[in-house]
Amino acid sequence: MPDYQNTDAYDLFLCAVREIELASLYRKKKQHLELIKALPASANYFARALLTAKGGAADKNEINDELLSARIESLNDGNHPVYGVILDAISLKSGNKIHDQPDDKIQDIFDRYRDALISGRKILVRDLKYNENQWKKIKAQLFTHTGLRQISFIFIPLLIFITIPIAFYLYKEPVHNSKLAGEIFWKSKVDTPFTGQRSNLFSVTEGSQFIEYTIDLPEPADIYLIRVDPVHRKYLAEIEIEWIRLFGQDGTLLQELTSREFKQWLCANCVKLPMSETNIFTIQVINKDPFLTSTVIDQKKVKSVSIRMRIISKKTFWEWVLGIDT
Questions:
Q1: 175, β-bridge pairs
Q2: Are 174 and 320 within 8 A, CB to CB?
Q3: Distance separating the N- and C-terminal Cα atoms of the chain
Q4: Among 116, 200, 289, 321, which lies 20 to 30 A Cα-Cα from 246?
């Protein structure tokens, strides 16, 4: 009896095919004794293949010939004549006088079993729930040295191709460099509102460098409070302000506001982030149109306002790859 350990259903089926091919050769040569040995051997392989596909054991130590026949008999319900033909083929080996079997009976069993092997293959494939040709290809690719080497030729370059851009992106941390708009408002008295008549737009640029922006007022104004809108409609940007300076008509510095004063300012549509070691005031934009409203300034005849700040809006990986600036 052959060793069935570590053998799957499809391999057992191939063994059954090999034995029936030998039996066919013995039939042509009229080698009666060899024929009635090869035919039940093929049936034995085929029976074990069907049982293995159904989840049964193929190990010869777990299923002997008697138990094998009993299990095939339990499946022989009349709906699948394959099982009955397998039992007939296996029975040729029973007893010690196998050479006494009538030749016409052997020929009949051979013809029926060969047809059953072809139709039984469909049962085997259905029970296994996969196409054996594809499975063999997958095994050849995944579980052989040559297959693993072939796969490595594909996946290692692909992994490098993906990893290097991501690593470079994380190292560089690219930011947008688009042109945006900011605005300042001022008012002269505590009971007057901020209005468009007392405001000025100015262009701002995103990037990693601090830029000084100077906003000239239409005419010298007494400023009691100011409101700074650093950027319009830019979500999740970080805005860092180093200082804000107020100048008079002759360019005289009237007042310089630094991070110490900004801590007391009102922050709308944004949150104040912890102060860095460089004492730079930082806010995180959480909604469109963030703005800061100062505490009392009360400066006379202010002609211009200068703001030194930077706006950092990090690009996503795909924005960086595609070169998108928004």
A1: 314
A2: yes
A3: 75
A4: 289
Cα 54 to Cα 31: distance, rounded to the nearest angstrom: 35
The pLDDT of residue 3 is: 44
Encode burial over 34-54: b for 16+ CB neighbours within 10 A, e otherwise: ebbbbbbbbbbbbbbbbbbbe
Q: Which two tokens stand for residue 70?
A: 């009993």
How far apart (Å, rounded) are the C-alpha atoms in residues 295 and 128?
A: 78
**Which residue is listed with tokens 């053998």?**
7
- Contact assessment for residue 317 and residue 166, using Cβ atoms and an 8 Å cutoff: yes
Q: Are 39 and 24 contacting, i.e. CB atoms less than 8 angstroms apart? A: no
Residue given tokens 């690719």 in the structure block: 141
How many other C-beta atoms are found inside a 10 Å radius of the C-beta of residue 244? Answer: 25
**Tens-place pLDDT, residues 138-184:** 555 555 556 566 667 777 888 888 888 888 878 877 778 888 899 99
Q: How many CB atoms lie within 10 A of CB 272?
A: 14
pTM to 2 decimal places = 0.51
